[in-house]
């Protein structure tokens, strides 16, 4: 698609994109990083990768013998 446009059209598109981006509110990376860290720490209690899934609510739990029992039976 971009190959079908003239250089003037491409530059117009770039200017329009820059006009949109300049309106974005910006904050320092140090502040954004701190806010992200606080959010992640606040949500850690709800994260199944950190706290795990209760065995009775795990839809992927295999029925029958555990993998450890299967491994030792060989």
TrEMBL record:
Q: Please give an example of a GO cellular component term from this record.
A: heterotrimeric G-protein complex
Name its cellular compartments. Answer: Cell membrane
- Give yes or no: UniProt keyword Plastid: no
Kindly give the InterPro entries that the UniProt entry links to this protein: G-protein_gamma, G-protein_gamma-like_dom, GGL_sf
Keywords, comma-separated and alphabetical:
Cell membrane, Lipoprotein, Membrane, Methylation, Prenylation, Transducer
Q: How does it sit in the membrane?
A: Lipid-anchor
Which Pfam families did the record assign? G-gamma
Keyword set includes Secreted? no
Instruction: List the CDD domains.
Output: GGL (cd00068)
* Tree of life domain: Eukaryota
Predominant location of this chain?
A: membrane
The Gene Ontology terms for molecular function here are: G-protein beta-subunit binding; GTPase activity
Q: Where's the G protein gamma domain?
A: 1-64
Name the GO terms of the biological process aspect: G protein-coupled receptor signaling pathway
Subunit-level organization = G proteins are composed of 3 units; alpha, beta and gamma.
The free-text function statement in the UniProt record for this protein reads: Guanine nucleotide-binding proteins (G proteins) are involved as a modulator or transducer in various transmembrane signaling systems. The beta and gamma chains are required for the GTPase activity, for replacement of GDP by GTP, and for G protein-effector interaction.
- Family statement: Belongs to the G protein gamma family.
**Name this protein carries in UniProt:** Guanine nucleotide-binding protein subunit gamma
Q: Which gene produces this protein?
A: GNGT2
